[in-house]
Amino acid sequence: MSLPWDVFGVDATWMLLMAFLVALPCSQIGSFLVLRRMSLVGDAISHGVLPGIVLGFVFTGDLASPWLLVGAAVSGILVTLLVELIHRKSKVKQDAAIGIAFTTLFALGVLMLEFFTHGNVHLDASCVIEGQLDRVIYYPDWVLLGIAVPEPVVTMAALALCTMILIVVFYRALLMTSFDPGLSASFGFRPSWIHYGLVGFLSVIVVSAFQAVGAILVIALLILPAASAYLCTHRLKTMLVLAGVHAFLSSWLGLLLYAHLNAGLASAIVTAGMGLFLLAWLVGPVDGVLMKWLARQRAVAENQRDISKNVSERNE
Q1: Nearest-5° angle of CA 151, CA 152, CA 156?
Q2: Closest by alpha carbon to 175, among 183, 80, 224, 162?
Q3: How far, in Å, CA of 86 to CA of 41, rounded?
Q4: Could you tell me the sign of the dihedral formed by the alpha carbons of 227, 74, 215, 247, in that order?
């Protein structure tokens, strides 16, 4: 298999870095989504942020404006509120409420796009499905410390750094509200505020990653690293570290697949991430299939030894 540097030269470095910087914040936020059983909410938000993006564009006229992120965050919170409203005020289950909320808001966003822009702004279907991760090298460069760095790499690096800082600052609150909201409230935390803050920042991450990997594949980056890490440990700090390692390895292996198969880079990264998940599912030290089988075999062997020991003691 050809190494990506043999095929793309120094451009492979920027593609790998961009892929990792997209996957890293997704993996960290995704860990809390998995623990809170909110994985489907990430799917809903990735589609439901469209109205906020459209409104941000209507007021600014710039697809690169930071106000699009603000509109997306508001839309993400609106999705969550709508899901909870439908679920709590009716007999509709949460999964059905999620389906109703995100499809409705996505359809509303499409209508708003056509009404306000009269079809002058076009959303490329391939961008929605696969993103443009492999085109990062064609964007304008920022010169940092004498090095020309593609603009999307700078943006995602800032977002990844912001994500890590927020997780460190609010780690205790996120930890307690993820496992026991009632107990966290007794310690003075506001579980609802933490919840909506997490959802709002998730919306920002989804929109930031949208152009790179598309609205569909970003869901895989939110769930696969966290789910793989959860099969290997049930300690949150270790889970966050392992999710970050998964993000890097899936980026690296995905770039190798991309260089060898000349396929979509984002799709290759998700495929590599799925391979790592299957590996964790098989040999994960906590919940891996093989580890559970070995534990059962040891338990059976110990029971047999205990039975044999009891029988021998009775015979004596």
Answers
A1: 125
A2: 183
A3: 14
A4: negative
Alpha-helical regions (H) of the chain: 4-8, 11-35, 39-48, 50-60, 67-88, 94-117, 125-130, 151-169, 171-179, 181-186, 191-230, 236-261, 265-283, 289-315
pTM: 0.81
List residues bridging with 141 in a β-sheet: 150
CB distance 60 to 256 below 8 Å: no
Q: How far apart are the first and last CA of the chain?
A: 66
* Cβ proximity of 148 and 141 under 8 Å: yes
Residue 211, token pair as written in the block: 């152009």
Instruction: Report which DSSP code applies to 262.
Output: -
Going by C-alpha positions, the residue among 238, 224, 228 that lies closest to residue 269 is 224
Find the helix or strand (DSSP H, E) in which 147 lies. Answer: strand 147-150
Per-residue pLDDT tens for 155-187?
888 889 999 999 999 998 888 888 877 777 777
> Is pLDDT above 60 for 125?
no
Does the structure show a pLDDT above 50 at 196?
yes
Q: 68, 207 in Cβ contact below 8 A?
A: yes
Q: How high is the pLDDT of residue 218?
A: 81
Contact in structure between 192 and 184 (CB atoms under 8 Å): no
The dihedral sign for the CA sequence 75, 80, 81, 82: positive
Most confidently modeled range among 69-78, 143-152, 240-249: 240-249
DSSP states along 184-216: HHHTT--HHHHHHHHHHHHHHHHHHHHHHHHHH
Separation between Cα atoms, residue 90 and residue 92, nearest integer Å: 5
**Amino acid residing at 152:** P
**Domain locations in the chain as residue ranges:** 4-219
Take residue 243 and report the two structure tokens written for it: 């999710």
Residue whose structure tokens are 């190798």: 256
Distance of alpha carbon 235 from alpha carbon 175, whole angstroms = 10
Helix (H) or strand (E) segment spanning residue 143: strand 141-144
Contact between 153 and 147 under an 8 Å Cβ cutoff? The reply is: no
